[in-house]
Amino acid sequence: MALYRNGDAVFCQAMGRPKEHGEETRERLLEAAARILTEEGAQAVTIRRVADEVGTTTRAIYSLFGGREGLFSALYRRVAGTFAELSEAVPTSDDPVRELVPLGLAYRAAALREPNLYGLLFEGGVPGFTPSQEDCAHSLRSLYRVHDAVRRCLEQGRFPGRDAWDVTRELHALAHGLASLELHGMLGTRDEAERAWRDALPAFVASLARPAEPA
Questions:
Q1: pLDDT, tens digit, for every residue of 143-190?
Q2: For residue 206, how far is the Cα from the chain centroid?
Q3: Number of C-beta neighbours around residue 93 at 10 A
Q4: In 3-state terms, what secondary structure has residue 191?
Q5: Residue 197 pLDDT grade (very low, low, confident, very high; cuts 50, 70, 90)
Q6: Beta bridge pairs of residue 3
Q7: How many Cβ atoms sit within 10 Å of the Cβ of residue 14?
Q8: How deeply is 118 buried, as exposed, middle or buried, from its count of CB atoms within 10 A (0-12, 13-18, 19+)?
Q9: Looking at residue 210, what DSSP letter applies?
Q10: Domains of the chain with bracketed CATH
Q11: Are 29 and 71 in contact (CB under 8 A)?
């Protein structure tokens, strides 16, 4: 409640309550939850544990996320947003074939930026957590960006006999396999892993130019 004077009259004005839990607390809670998820598994990500890691109260989690399910939903949208941001940042080209390798490398960059959450998005990292339709819409943005490039390739007659969604899924499968191996340390050093990506992606794109074999 604030008081102010206008001449001899004193007025009373109600003021909104300041936010008890702001964006900084939200980000710290998400970071803590992601770290616990990676290091100890989904069962260790409890409201009490995450709050204690940040030095706040469980009330903060309920206030910001509505509970444990909302916390996982926020984590899911966070990693999905990273994939969407980096894939959508790849410039479009008059020659859409030129977009495909950069889109694959954008996938790698997103996985490396969010290693603690990669499994949540693509590997069912939280038993019992089911993303909502709205969550899933966020996760599909990066896939749609790839599909758009592939569709334009087909419209130019670049990949004869191929289907846009089939090619999109194949590229995603390749990128997912490489990312999973790299995040588990199975592609060697960072430089060795990058060489694997830069060898595999162009080879896949080149293979698309060959006519599809009969079923």
A1: 999 999 999 999 999 999 999 999 999 999 999 999 999 999 999 999
A2: 28
A3: 12
A4: helix
A5: very high
A6: 12
A7: 7
A8: buried
A9: S
A10: 18-66 (1.10.10.60), 69-208 (1.10.357.10)
A11: yes
Beta bridge partners of 5: 10
161: left (phi over 0), alpha (psi -120 to 50) or beta: left
Q: Which pTM value belongs to this model? A: 0.83
What CA–CA distance (Å, rounded) separates 131 from 77?
Answer: 9
What is the average pLDDT across 86-108?
A: 97
Alpha carbons within 13 A on the beta-carbon side of 108: 24
Q: Could you tell me whether strands 9-13 and 2-6 are parallel, antiparallel, or unpaired per DSSP bridges?
A: antiparallel
Please enumerate in sequence order all residues whose Cβ is within 8 A of that of 133, keeping only pairs 6 or more positions apart, or say none.
none
Q: Which amino acid is at 203?
A: A
**Contacts of residue 215, Cβ cutoff 8 Å, sequence gap at least 6:** none
